Amino acid sequence: MQIDSNANSTTLQAIIQHQENLEECNCGSQEKVMFYCDEQKCPSFAHQRLFCPSCMRPDKHPHAPVFIAIRNKNVSNEWNQLRQEVVNLKQKIINWMSIHEPLSLLLDEFIINPEISLWCKYNHLKILGEDIEAFYQINFAELSIKGEILKLQELNNNLNGFRERLKQLEFLNKIGPIVLWMLYSDAIPLVSHQIALQRLSLPNYEVFIKLRLYKMQMSLNYLLKDQKVDQEVYLRILENPEESNEHFIQKMCSKLKSIANTDELNISNALQIGELRSELDSIATSQMLISIIQKMKEQEQSTIDKFNERILGFEESLRKLSERLINQTKQNKKYSDNLVKSLENRLQIKQAQERNHVDQLRQNFESFKLLNSKILKTETQQNQMRKFFEQAGRNLSFSQLLYRGSQHSFSASSFHKFCDNKPFTLTIIQTSQGVIMGGYTEQSWEGEDNYKQDQNAWLFNIEEPKIFKVNDDGKFAIVTNQSFGPTFGGGYDLHISDDCNSKYQSYIDCDTYNGFSKGKQLLRIEEIEVFSV
User: Fold this and answer.
1) What is the pLDDT of residues 35-71, one digit of tens each?
2) Which residues on adjacent β-strands are paired with residue 403?
3) Cβ atoms within 10 Å of 58's Cβ, excluding its own
4) Closest residue by Cα to residue 262 from 273, 276, 278
5) The CA-based dihedral angle spanning residues 445, 447, 450, 452, taken in that order and rounded to the nearest 10 degrees
6) Position 250 confidence tier, pLDDT thresholds 50, 70, 90
7) At what angle are helices 118-135 and 68-108 packed, to 10 degrees?
8) Which of 211-215, 455-459, 464-468 has the lowest mean pLDDT?
9) For residues 173-196, b (16+ Cβ closer than 10 Å) or e, as one string?
10) Measured between alpha carbons, how far is 420 from 399 in angstroms, rounded to an integer?
């Protein structure tokens, strides 16, 4: 039996590379095995699965030979393909979660079985990749180098087992709204629009609304017992970028309206239709609010872009004028120098005016925040402060910054300079550990080492849902001392020391405001603000 003389160079190269790692043939020729017998009807199949060129005779192996190197390469390709599929799927999930992780974490809070969460599925995939890699390195890599094709064939069951585990996770290739629906369909109705709006960015909230609308569509189909509905069609809507939420809302409104006008609905169905319309109205309102916020951001960005364009225009004009002036310096250098300086001054004035205009626009945008606080930076924190005032029985409708440590210094004297004789104040502090807390009082801070009564005083921790009201009719609500910063309670519950940003002498303790502190804890203050409210 002769080897095909037309075998390509790749095959020959593979044979040469593996030949030195192969064992000698058992025929006694002292040649190394190069071929693999996979014909069960072959007379030598049972006792000589690997053989050398000398054994390629009609009486021993009367069939076309299979190169060990090529079979070994094919088996290696199968394992490497499996490893790469796991890596690609993991990266696909990571890329998607880099934007949409907050949405999946929010939905995780409302599921009963954590095993169905997206992160749990990702961990299963991660463990699968680690198992495959460990098995590959321990059992496969060395056998592949040695070309032990028979032992490699024995690993096929393991390869099939790993592929079966990967098959159970292949639905993650559709990572996006469809996968979220598959995992969280029962949890989606439990998440309120208010919570989603507070905790999610615009891209995440858009996906959340799409899932809620899809859930409503499914509820409507079930209510009408529509047997003609193709669920796959609606699942494709989840992934269709052309299908906007606004378009979906319009179609749902039209459908609900037409159904409500029929005479075929019973009372129970009519009530459920009404609930769907109410939720749809809530979604539409949220979408309108998002559109307003988006337009404001776009307007701000447009103004900044126009400003930058004008600056570039001024710079280009200055460059052209400068070139002209340089050409004129030979005739009148003094005149040219004065003209350049004049133009530069005019440009600086114009640039300053433009910057002031942009700063004013930014200030106008920031004025939407009720508290112009460097501590309460996020909309969620601002909303939480409004809720604290509502719990105290009043609305937070006005604020004026009286004192800020980073601006006026952290000394007690500076605090009293700006805050004495100022009733109705809100104190906000941020510790070096990032904790945000503070308190409210209707009393003013002037006085010499004296307690002041205030039944309406309270303390807060931004991470806690409720305020901590003063007890005992507020007899020891606050302490006025010219050597102290703002200090609340008789214990003291919240004490801000002089030079609180550089000393660990400020502290919290438990005494006058129930539940505020579980014990004494020293603090160093990173920032402090006092507002008139």
Assistant:
1) 767 777 787 776 666 777 777 777 777 766 766 555 6
2) 530
3) 9
4) 273
5) -40
6) low
7) 160
8) 211-215
9) eebebbbbbebbeebbeebebeeb
10) 17
